[in-house]
Amino acid sequence: EFTALRLENSDGCSGRLQVFYNGTWGTVCSNSITSKTVSLVCKELGCGDRGDQETPTLYGKVADPVWLDRVECEERSSSFWECPSSPWDPDSCDDLRDETHITCNGRRPEVPSALGRECPNATSCTDREKLRVVGGESGCSGRVELWSRGSWGTVCDDSWDMQDAQVVCRQLGCGPAVSALAEAAFGEGTGPIWLEQVECRGTELSLQDCWARPGDSGVCRHKEDAAVNCSVCQRRLPGCCSPYLIPALLPLCSCTQDSGTSPSNSGKVSVPVIICIILGTLLCLLLALLARQVRSTGAGHR
């Protein structure tokens, strides 16, 4: 499973310790947390070489998953992910006072990347704020645009596929990707084309983490702008907005497409059809078991 680590605060170097697992951010229970564990977390996040474990003042039941408990880092451990722990479990601890809160002794340095670190209308921002979709109605479908070097630009559709769209939908905070669209399906953009030949595995947390060529070759034009169509989840059932949800189950989860989106809504599968498929599968399994029982009984009589 794809995993990641963060401290849930604006500076990224203090706050509640969280891990990303199975498509969801969750916290870590404080049982067995030592100074070695705290040190590894701070180093891994680029927030200094040590830190302090804070005592939470909040009371009440934990709302988010608490993925890990009894993380026991040893002196020879060189990474947080090498430390043994209890198995993954969303109900590791029940009280907010048991969550792990850490304050590191350093701050993240400003490191420029290929896409730049300028932020629209702010001195600092997250990768999520450097991505938007244009042309849809709900903010979950449209032409994909990235903020870099002081302006918004587009992404070329060369090699654009569902894995790339899945990463975009996750970064936007939308439901699972429904389709990856090409040839300026939501109209042609303006400005630079920042990325070409995007190759995501589908597990990245942001498009900026995917391999891609800089879009300055002049080969791509805005008529090839990439777009996505993400589902808009109403979160009526647990796990419905997970980016790993099977697209055929979207109707059962009240996940809908952006009403202003492009072509090809005809492929949607209705709820009755899905229910019939499930019931039919169960019926076939039951008949197979009955047939096996009849054969066993006949063999016993013989």
TrEMBL record:
InterPro entries: SRCR (IPR001190), SRCR-like_dom_sf (IPR036772). It comes from the Eukaryota. Disulfide bonds join C29-C93, C73-C83, C156-C220, C169-C230, C200-C210. Keywords: Disulfide bond, Glycoprotein, Membrane, Repeat, Secreted, Signal, Transmembrane, Transmembrane helix. It comes from Serilophus lunatus (silver-breasted broadbill). The chain crosses the membrane at residues 269-291. Its main location: secreted. This is WC11 protein. Signal peptide: none annotated. Pfam families: SRCR. One of its GO terms (cellular component) is membrane.
